[in-house]
Amino acid sequence: xxxxxxxxxxxxxxxxxxxxxxxxxxxxxxxxxxxxxxxxxxxxxxxxxxxxxxxxxxxxxxxxxxxxxxxxxxxxxxxxxxxxxxxxxxxxxxxxxxxxxxxxxxxxxxxxxxxxxxxxxxxxxxxxxxxxxxxxxxxxxxxxxxxxxxxxxxxxxxxxxxxxxxxxxxxxxxxxxxxxxxxx
Length: 184
Known about the structure:
Number of strands: 8
Radius of gyration: 30 Å
Order of helices and strands: HEEEEEEEE
Helix content: 10-25%
Strand content: 25-35%
Structural class: alpha+beta
């Protein structure tokens, strides 16, 4: 009987060694260290806001960019303020646009000095054009490009949506603009 007890003790010890050895090997796969010389780690907030200057928000409905009964070659145009409301500089861009509806639209996106430079009825004054083309899937500037904004700084975009020579009658479309900001 003692002989069998030794075998059980040896078998149990072998299992403990195998389990302990496996745990040590696995633990080594997740471990690393490195010496770091002195330096500074900074943190901050990245916060892009859009909407009327002084009252920017995260999601904004640009109601002024819309019209009913657009005739041939008609357009709607409106300014949109973009502000860096965070504490770190960032690069940003119009990431994409999504169009729902049946009216084919051409988008022109420009940067202007102030909202007054993007009147609703005539071409914007002093505009730097960033994009012109199909409103669906627009991106400005093209990735990986971006526009730099320091903390507290802002810009005014002038958006124009135009229909062609023969727009569909009694139809509508909606355009959603999505911006992206990355810390620089």
